[in-house]
Amino acid sequence: MLWPRLARSLLRRPLTDAPVPPLPETVAALTERLEAASRSRLGRSLAIRAVNAGSCNGCELELGALQGVVYDLERFGLRFVESPRHADVLLATGPAVRNMSEALLRAHACMPEPGWVVAVGDCALDGGLFRDGYAVAGGIGAVLPVDLVIPGCPPSPSLILEGLLALVEAEA
Ligand code: SF4
């Protein structure tokens, strides 16, 4: 019967664990450093073009959280853009699957200087779980010169923010 099952699913608690909230002080400290560093190097903005090169979408969920109300990167001038022509950073997730290699190369070729490449997640490092797949060329480094790898499966938004900060500070 459908109705008892429907009633049970409406009344019982969700099966997923509650998310661990990030420490507000950690977020504030990271964004403050990032804001200061990006202002001197990039004029108070950091435009990021995200490319899913073959990810399972786990890393994309964390990138989505980075743009949500908790981290809210846009208030600091950090934003995700739709075109690589407007981007300072090409942020690639997932292994580089063969069908996406050309798209990655073209996206990078469109970018203005400095054209940094950030590989996010264990898959972007070396192919991760998918490294032996016939469709996988390897990590993002197999296609593009990578400036920074942010490991994790998936890395947390704080870790991604920390990585972007390290990149901007190193280049400032
Ligand atoms: S690193 Fe983990 S979450 Fe990210 S694409 Fe690979 S398997 Fe998915």
From TrEMBL:
Organism domain of life: Bacteria
MF-aspect GO terms: 4 iron, 4 sulfur cluster binding; metal ion binding
Full protein name: Hydrogenase
Family label: Belongs to the complex I 20 kDa subunit family.
Swiss-Prot/TrEMBL cofactor(s): [4Fe-4S] cluster
Species in which this protein is naturally found: Teichococcus deserti
Coiled coil segments of this chain: none
InterPro entries xrefs: Complex_I_20kDa-like (IPR052375), NADH_UbQ_OxRdtase-like_20kDa (IPR006137)
Pfam families listed in its UniProt record: Oxidored_q6
Residues in NADH:ubiquinone oxidoreductase-like 20kDa subunit domain copies: 56-167
Keywords: 4Fe-4S, Cell membrane, Iron, Iron-sulfur, Membrane, Metal-binding
